[in-house]
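User: Just a sanity check before I run the rest of the batch. Below are the structure tokens for the first item. I only need the designed sequence back.
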């Protein structure tokens, strides 16, 4: 992993997150009044102090995850990683199923870990950093370093023990960045269903009532375990 690849990753992440950050900025400046399809789902405006706090911890998380990427590269160089480049190596059926199952399994892990962060005292103090303020795109990845490590560790383990195509992780990173920033932008599009894919409105309710809505991508886990609130079933 050289400096060029690191910079390209940063640029890609910024491009993926930029539409949601733009909506947030326009909303905070009261410039979305004519955009009838967009509404505020957070209760209050952010202060500069809030934004700096979220940005500082997001930067910390990005740095920790960069170290994990570097560790993954070392494992690949040593021949320990099972990640492969040719999508057809195990056939297209395996590629498609591995793509879908990886997202589903990681989402279940995220739900379970997120639930644990709120219900075990030894973890709650770490997660309190993320709940320091209401949602904003700059604080989407504002995690305590311990939480950042625990969120990222399963991906490295998956690369070591499960043969998965490299492109799965590329799309995974893009979708994680886009969706996580979206559900933290404090604004949402009217009429979106929260039954299957979780929305900004759904996650904003979690930041106000931390005993509900623990999912990241899909609504099935909160619905199945009875932790969902404010679900729109349209």
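Assistant: Here's the designed sequence for the first item:
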């Amino acid at each position: 992993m050289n400096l060029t690849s690191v910079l390209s990753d940063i640029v890609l992440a910024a491009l993926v997150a930029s539409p949601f950050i733009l909506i947030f900025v326009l909303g905070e400046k009261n410039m979305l009044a004519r955009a009838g399809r967009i509404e505020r789902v957070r209760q209050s405006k952010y202060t500069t102090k809030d934004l700096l706090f979220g940005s500082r911890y997001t930067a910390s998380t990005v740095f920790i995850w960069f170290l994990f990427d570097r560790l993954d590269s070392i494992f690949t160089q040593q021949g320990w990683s099972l990640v492969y480049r040719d999508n057809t190596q195990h056939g297209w059926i395996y590629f498609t199923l591995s793509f879908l199952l990886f997202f589903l399994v990681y989402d279940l892990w995220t739900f379970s870990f997120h639930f644990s962060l709120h219900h075990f005292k030894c973890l709650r103090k770490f997660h309190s950093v993320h709940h320091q303020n209401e949602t904003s795109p700059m604080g989407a990845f504002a995690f305590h370093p311990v939480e950042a490590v625990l969120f990222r560790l399963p991906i490295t383990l998956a690369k070591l023990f499960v043969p998965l195509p490299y492109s799965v992780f590329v799309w995974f990173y893009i979708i994680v960045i886009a969706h996580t920033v979206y559900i933290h932008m404090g604004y949402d599009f009217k009429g979106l269903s929260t039954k299957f894919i979780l929305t900004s409105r759904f996650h904003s309710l979690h930041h106000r009532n931390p005993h509900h809505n623990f999912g990241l991508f899909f609504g099935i886990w909160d619905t199945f375990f009875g932790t969902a609130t404010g679900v729109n079933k349209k």
